[in-house]
Amino acid sequence: MTRSLTPFRLWLLVPLVLVTIGAVSGVLVLTQGLGITALTNQVPWGLWITVDLTSIALGAGAFSLSTIAYIFRVKSFQRIARTAVFVGLVGYTSAMLALLMDIGRPDRFWHPILYWNIHSVLWEITMCVILYSTVLLVEFGPIVLESDVVSKRIPFAPKIGHFLHRLTPIVSVIGLGLSLLHQSSLGATYGVLVARPIWFKPSLPVMFIVSAVAAGGAVTLALIIILENLRKERQIDSPLRANIARFAGLMTLAYLYLKLWDFLATSYYSHLPARAEAQSLLDQITPYGDTFWLLEVLLGALIPAIILLTPRFRRQDIWIIAAAALATLGVITNRWNVTLSGLILPLDWTPGAAALFPANAYFPSTVEWGVAIGVLGYALLMFTLGLRFLPLFPAHDDAH
Q1: What is the CA radius of gyration of the chain?
Q2: Which of 208, 234, 254, 321 keeps 20 to 30 A from 58, CA to CA?
Q3: How does pLDDT run across 355-382, given as a tens digit for each residue?
Q4: Does residue 197 have a pLDDT over 70?
Q5: Which of 175, 292, 217, 262 is nearest to 57 (CA)?
Q6: What is the reported pTM?
Q7: How far apart are CA 102 and CA 98, in angstroms?
Q8: How many C-beta atoms lie closer than 10 Å to residue 22's C-beta?
Q9: Residue with the larger pLDDT of the pair 173 and 21
Q10: What is the DSSP string of 173-205?
Q11: To 10 degrees, what angle do helices 238-263 and 204-231 make?
Q12: Burial 94-109 (b: 16+ CB within 10 A, else e)
């Protein structure tokens, strides 16, 4: 028994070291303030917001796959619903850790609950995060209560878990609405700003939703495959695996379609002066154009879609994991590009006054990287412990 635990304990040191780095960096930020970061009044969002938006997007597998399982009553998908909820919970709590540092005054996190500003998209996002996280906890409750660690110590815990599980269809409907509102509002945070032409467009809310569903589904499937290889036991059959891959692949294609048409509508066929000037400046001072086509379109969308929709590729574990990794890379790049493209462009910039209003510079500081590493460590730690101790799959003869 001791020998079998040794590799697990050795691996456990990796996320624990990362969490320690994040904790030290977080303490420095909380005690010394945001002044020790590279964030400024001109560029108030940076690496941490990218981590936040990416974590939430990857957690979208929870609402999309749970919707298929419980709302559309696709019985085969109910087998992976628990894993999807687990991925969603880890994603949302990771995002909360990033926001804890980013808001500057985490002691005031409760203010939006009492002081409503219904005209603010950020207020809507805050409420969706709080409410949907509550939904995820309710959906996640049966997984913990039915685990051996809890049920052996609390005999009536499985009964409570079974009661909560009966509420899952209702909770899933509520969660679907909240998550759709949340994902779309994240895109609308940028898309409603008329003063920043590079952001202002109605397509961002839709693209945020579709990209999140696509990447979240691929990541959930990859996590299941990793678990199967660790346990040396198949948890889902080939038809279900193919269906999940097809779902993620088709959503990736839908996202790619929307992305290319958005580019054509805003940058190729349209020549709005303010947007054209902003795009020209971005191409001069940043790798935005190159990363858009290489990382977002080619590596982050087209190749994952091909892998997920090609039977020969999706039957091989390594290709599914590669597709999930590439889809994650695409989401990270997209969230970074969307955020920074609008902030590094000064509001008063014009070609004739470029010297008076230079572009805003930003590169994450050491403590920003440290916090981001800590959030990554937290996610790895939660996945490690969850895969090890939680019943993420019902018994084959009891697939809820």
Answers
A1: 22
A2: 234
A3: 556 778 899 999 999 999 999 999 999 9
A4: yes
A5: 217
A6: 0.90
A7: 6
A8: 24
A9: 21
A10: HHHHHHHHHHHHHHHHHHHT-TT-TTT--TTHH
A11: 150
A12: bbbbbbbbbeeeeeee
Q: Return d(Cα 232, Cα 228) in angstroms, integer.
A: 6
Q: What crossing angle do the helices spanning 168-191 and 47-58 adopt, rounded to 10°?
A: 150
For residue 204, pLDDT beyond 90: yes
Asked if pLDDT for residue 83 goes beyond 50, the answer is yes
d(CA 57, CA 80) in angstroms, rounded, equals: 18
118 pLDDT more than 60? yes
- pLDDT, residue 269, reads 84
Among the residue ranges 24-28, 54-58, 138-142, the one predicted with the least confidence is: 138-142
85 or 356, greater pLDDT: 85
pLDDT tops 80 at residue 396: no
Taking residues 233-249, report their average pLDDT.
Answer: 92
pLDDT at 356: 55
Token pair listed for 72: 């559309």
Per-residue tokens: 170:
């209702």
Indicate the burial class of 216 (C-beta count within 10 angstroms; 0-12, 13-18, 19 or more): buried
**How far apart, in whole angstroms, are the C-alpha atoms of residue 50 and residue 141?**
29
Q: Is 391 helix (H, G, I), strand (E, B) or coil?
A: coil
Q: Take residue 207 and report the two structure tokens written for it.
A: 């693209």
Sequence-ordered alpha helix ranges (H) in the chain: 2-32, 47-58, 61-66, 81-102, 111-114, 121-145, 148-151, 157-166, 168-191, 204-231, 238-263, 273-285, 288-291, 303-309, 311-314, 317-343, 366-389
Enumerate residues 6+ apart whose C-beta is below 8 A from 348: 356, 357
Taking CA atoms, 108 is separated from 25, 40, 105, 111, in Å, by 20, 20, 6, 6
Question: Which position has the token pair 């929709």?
Answer: 309
Structure tokens, 74:
């696709």
SS3 call for 109? coil
Alpha-carbon dihedral sign for residues 293, 254, 201, 363? negative
For residue 349, give the nearest of 278, 284, 258 by alpha carbon.
Answer: 278
